[in-house]
Design a protein that fits this description.
The protein has 287 residues and is mainly β. A hairpin with a 5-residue loop joins strand 5 and strand 6.
Length: 287
């Protein structure tokens, strides 16, 4: 009745911890609080909300292009060189804490040879059965340790269809000409840099990487090559500069990539005086 706070420690039984009953007055109302003696007063609603927020994804990205997308490479003439169409593209990325999961799926795609001299209008396309997709990959990544000093890939899976590649010599030379002109434009762009100031050297950081499982399933590439009987002077000059000459045509040369499956541990770089003891080890810089 005096309005002064009172505390009575209670011990229900051995090993059960301790609780405290607190009484106080809020105006004419008597308030009784039951408090854990070890942790003190805590807001249960705030604690549950904080736990819920920690379990939610920190980053989530989802891209779905059911009807597809098209991309063109056009030279400065202008002339369209190649055209890429993709359909059924799905990209899912989720980051929860220190765990990352990435899924890529492509139902179908095709790269067309758009050159005027093209004998075969298709450059690259998948060969699939019913229900198959052109490309599917799944990757999961996790940083472990107090300071994220260990990078772990619990799952890396790549599923490929069979592919057909039809290479036209004229298209190859025109692509070289296109990228040469692009690089020439970059080199001729003036840049204002002080001669007495050098940018600091980029330091590479290394960390151990644990690959718990990687699987790349078997696929077959069928490759064909079409040589150009006659070339324009500018394309002929590029071919002579590059130094390759082709006089023969070939078609449907099959290259089989067998299934690749492996689990290994890649340690951090050893010093010059030390040698790596793991026969499957290698050094991978993590930028």
């Amino acid at each position: 009745s005096s309005g002064i706070n009172a505390e009575w420690p209670l011990r229900p039984g051995p090993g059960s911890g301790a609780i405290i009953l607190k009484t106080s007055y809020d105006g004419p109302t008597k308030v009784i609080k039951i408090v854990d003696a070890e942790f003190g007063e805590r807001n249960v609603y705030e604690d549950s909300t904080r736990v819920a927020l920690l379990t939610l994804p920190k980053f989530f990205f989802n891209l779905r292009l059911a009807n597809g997308i098209g991309l063109s490479v056009v030279s400065g003439d202008p002339e369209e060189l190649i055209y890429l169409t993709m359909s059924g593209l799905v990209v899912d990325m989720e980051v929860v804490g220190r765990k990352t999961a990435l899924t890529l799926d492509l139902a179908n795609f095709q790269i067309d040879n758009q050159c005027r001299e093209a004998v075969v209008p298709v450059l690259f396309y998948p060969v699939m059965g019913e229900g198959e997709h052109a490309f599917h990959a799944r990757l999961s990544r996790e940083a472990r340790g107090r300071e994220n000093e260990l990078v772990v890939y619990p799952e890396v899976q790549v599923l490929l269809a069979n592919y057909t590649l039809i290479v036209d010599e004229v298209l190859v030379l025109k692509l070289i000409q296109f990228f040469d002109s692009t690089n020439r434009t970059k080199l001729t762009t003036p840049k204002k840099l002080r001669s007495d100031v050098r940018p600091p050297a980029k330091q590479l950081s290394y960390a151990p990487v644990l690959i718990e499982g990687i699987v790349i399933y078997e696929t077959v590439f069928n490759v064909s090559w079409t040589a150009a009987p006659v070339l324009e002077p500018d394309l002929l000059a590029i071919r002579n500069r590059v130094g390759f000459k082709s006089y023969l045509n070939f078609s449907d040369v099959a290259m089989v990539m067998a299934k690749y499956q492996r689990s290994c541990f890649i340690p951090p770089p050893a010093s010059k005086k030390e040698k790596s003891t793991d026969c499957d080890s290698a050094l991978i810089p993590l930028l």
